[in-house]
Design brief:
Layout: H1 4-9, H2 12-21, H3 37-47, H4 66-80, H5 85-96, H6 110-133, H7 144-155
Helix pairs in contact: 3-4, 4-5
Length: 156
């Protein structure tokens, strides 16, 4: 008699159904969603760029932490109040700091981080070019007189 999981292996559509069930679900609860689909779409767009302060590797839409729920509700409240997307993000950053942004702004001290990658790339290219220019050139051929002298020295 085969084990119960053996039957699942013989059924590709069943295996596909199980794989689809294993995908992560968004943590946004139905009671959080806005009735206006346009505002809800804006809220989701903003939430994709906000990091969960607890989970740190997930967006607030994917996180089920209580702080993420609070942030989702704050975003929706601000949108209903008439704030623009930038004003909502500024409000969140003012309360929680730049850390909550998945893509930090290229200003202030973050500018160093934004410019470090290109600067290191340019430095690496400069080092490669300098090393290429310094490469050892093949030796020139000896003259007949030099070869004769070398042969004499090696005989001794």
């Amino acid at each position: 008699m085969r084990a119960w999981w053996g039957r699942w292996a013989d059924c590709p559509s069943c295996a596909l159904a199980l794989a689809l069930l294993a995908t992560p679900a968004a943590a946004v609860q139905p009671d959080e969603m806005l009735a206006d689909p346009g505002l809800e779409a804006r809220a989701r767009e903003i939430s994709r760029d906000i990091r969960c302060p607890v989970c740190q590797g997930e967006t607030i839409d994917d996180s089920s932490a209580p702080i993420s729920r609070d942030l989702r509700l704050i975003i929706r409240e601000r949108l209903v109040a008439g704030d623009t997307d930038a004003e909502v993000v500024d409000y969140i950053v003012a309360r929680y700091g730049e850390f909550v942004l998945f893509n930090p702004r290229a200003e202030g001290s973050n500018l160093i981080l934004w410019l470090a990658g290109p600067a290191l790339l340019l430095a690496a290219i400069a080092v490669a070019v300098a090393a290429q220019r310094r490469r050892i050139l093949p030796e020139e051929q000896l003259t007949q007189a030099e070869e004769a002298r070398l042969t004499e020295i090696l005989k001794d």
